[in-house]
Amino acid sequence: MKIFCVGRNYVEHAKELGNAIPDEPVIFMKPKSALVQTNVPFYYPEFTNELHYEAELVFQICKNGKYIKQKDAQHFYNKITVGIDFTARDIQNELKKKGLPWEKAKAWDQSAVVGKWLPIEKDMMKKTIEFSLFKNNEQVQLGNTTQMIYTVDYLIAHISNYFSLNIGDLIFTGTPAGVGECVVGDELTGYLGKEKMFELTIK
Predict the structure, then answer these.
(1) Do 118 and 40 touch, CB atoms closer than 8 A?
(2) DSSP letters of 128-178?
(3) Phi and psi angles of residue 72, each rounded to the nearest 5 degrees, phi first
(4) Per-residue buried b or exposed e for 63-78, using 16+ beta carbons within 10 Å of the residue's own CB
(5) What is the CATH number that goes with domain 3-201?
(6) Residues 4-59: tens digit of each pLDDT
(7) Are 17 and 176 in contact (CB under 8 A)?
(8) Domain definitions of the chain by residue range
(9) Closest CA to 27 of 165, 189, 181, 177
(10) Distance of alpha carbon 118 from its chain centroid, rounded?
């Protein structure tokens, strides 16, 4: 199982971090060990002093494919949820200054949260899908699919030019503006529309 992540897929988020708007998707990966397992506590990692949350829509691949055309991409995913791409921002900033890869800031064990999965119903993707993140009962992020620079269908077509997509793979599609720091004791809650998808306490 592979975890594909998309950076800078929301204009306002790119701006808030001082990044340029990309002219093609920014793709990076997390290993399977990055997933926080059900009923396993999330512990603040020892190697960072600036842990940031990044809420994202996540899609699950349901069919194997390679060189997928955008018009066919809808047949390759069938579940959706909300997740968090945790980022060690202090480490990422240092790596970016040196022109180095982001893995130590993005792909460490337990750096990816996914909520419960919902089936993608007929015509669901033709509508605006809204998601949000609350920190200690206060909304900190709100995004929807119309704000994405690259749609999930485009992302699947693009990623499949470079990597085979396999059943069970996940695609984190990018985060909207509002990312910020979290500390021990914070409670993070993700919603798809009005439905709660996950609840997480940082220990």
Answers:
(1) no
(2) --EEEEEETTEEEEEEEGGGBSS-HHHHHHHHTTTS-B-TT-EEE----S-
(3) -100, -5
(4) eebeebeeeebeebbe
(5) 3.90.850.10
(6) 999 889 877 656 667 677 789 999 999 999 999 888 899 999 999 999 999 999 99
(7) no
(8) 3-201
(9) 165
(10) 16
The amino acid at 102: W
- Record the tokens describing residue 82, joined without a space: 């909300």
Q: Concatenated DSSP letters for 78-128? A: EEEEEEEE-EEHHHHHHHHHTT--SHHHHSSTT-EEE---EE--TTGGGS-
Read off the tokens for 81: 């949820």
pLDDT tens, position by position, 150-169: 999 999 999 999 999 999 99
Q: Is 12 helix (H, G, I), strand (E, B) or coil?
A: helix
Whether the predicted model's global pTM rises above the 0.90 cut: yes
The C-alpha R_g of the chain, in whole angstroms, comes to: 16
Given CA atoms 31, 175, 190, 155 in this order, what sign does their dihedral have?
negative
| Strand partners of residue 192 | 131, 195
